Amino acid sequence: MRERLILLAAGSVAFGASLGSGFHFDDYAIFSDPALQSARGWLEVWAPLQTRPLTYFTFWLNRQLGAGDPLGYHLFNLLFHLAAVLLAWECLRRLLPERPALIAGVLFALHPMQSEAVNYVWARGIVLAGIFCFGALWQWLEGRPWSAVAWFALALLAKDVEANRKFAQELLGFQLPERALAEVLEDRGHARTCARLDSFVEIDDGAAQQFTDATCDRRLPSAHEADEKDVAHRLIRAR
Fold it and tell me: Which residues lie closer than 8 Å to 86 by C-beta, 6 or more apart?
């Protein structure tokens, strides 16, 4: 609970001032789109040729709740950002030790790079896609592949450009620091994480077996620490 409160506070402090902002550039398209003005817009935004229907549905909901008041639109963006922060942290704490995971989560929450997606109403699709991509990764790490597929499908409905990403390979194809990798594989309920990492990383069968023996199953004796380190290096660098 403490970590979640820290993350929520970081995101709120960094972007809370956006609640006092107005509309900019393409934001005004919200008020000229017939579907977003219609009482049946909640259905019309799901038309077959409509791109980003989930994002447009949130715009329609904003329009119904607050008409042209920018506060509601910015509040939605801020709440979506905070949700993305929490889901990012759920993923990070399954891949990193607790303190580095929290630090990374705080950096994600308040980094200036987030400014456009949070402050610019029309960029809401970026935040929504982030929520569902993090949700997909979280479910995959928990060993629920079909739930991960459902989350990723929602990401596509929020921002169709996500279809161009090599989602699974790129998200877990990064280089984990040795210390972080060791912490991930500690006996603290991360057995499924080992299996998920093993299935994501593209390595030959022999290296995969060595990785399983040296980490998840922990079969190698302590005298073979050098060999374990070599296996970790091979896993980290394998793509």
Answer: 4, 7, 8
